[in-house]
Amino acid sequence: MAQLKLPRDERITLRAAAHHLDPVVLLGASGLTEAVKKEVSRALDAHELIKVRVPSDDREERVEIYETLAEELGAAKVQLIGKLFVLYRPNPDKDKKEAPAEKAPAEKKERKTGAKARNQRKRLTEIIQAEKKGKAKSLPWASTVKKGKTPKGQVKAVGEKGTPLGKRLARKGFSK
Predict the structure, then answer these.
(1) d(Cα 42, Cα 46) in Å, to the nearest integer?
(2) Are 154 and 144 spatial neighbours (Cβ–Cβ below 8 Å)?
(3) What is the average per-residue pLDDT within 100-105?
(4) Nearest Cα to 116, choosing from 166, 158, 155?
């Protein structure tokens, strides 16, 4: 089976993903055997991205094992650091099984935030409560409202009947 070649960016991404992984396969004193190859193949099927630890002190032997495993199992060589190396082989069956169902995006209700919007909501609440009590003229800011306009710097508020707040106050005689 031919070794899998990965583009540079994908290798870098896989290195980052493999950073926190622990070695899945540990080679013993007997080196690279058929049992080790089967175990590495099984681990690649299960995890796609694995780390393998080789106890040998001979660098040339470790590189040879790394290249042999990648070539025979059809895996990509991601990284070789010291006695650890990282292999990657995509599993097409895993993509079919674990494809998450796409959810329809929930509709967002955009609510105004910030000081202006809070003040606006607060003033509308004050007006409604004052109208119920019949004390709308006693509001300290009611005299600042001009005909058809809201107080300086405020977003134009809409009252219960759909008319702008300034017009409602003007109709009731609260403007200068």
Answers:
(1) 6
(2) no
(3) 60
(4) 155
Q: pTM of the predicted model, to two decimals? A: 0.53
H helix or E strand, kind and range, residue 24: strand 23-26
SS3 (DSSP) at 73 = helix
Mean pLDDT along residues 94-119: 65
Percentage of the chain lying above the pLDDT 90 cut:
41
Tokens of 88: 């990657």
The SS3 call for residue 87 is strand
More confident site: 61 or 124: 61
Distance CA 143, CA 43 (A): 76
CA-nearest of 2, 36, 11, 155 to 86 is 11
Q: Two tokens at 151?
A: 């107080």
Please compute Rg for the chain using Cα positions: 35
Phi and psi at 28, nearest 5°, equal -95, -165
Would you say 91 and 50 are in contact if contact means Cβ atoms under 8 Å apart?
Answer: no
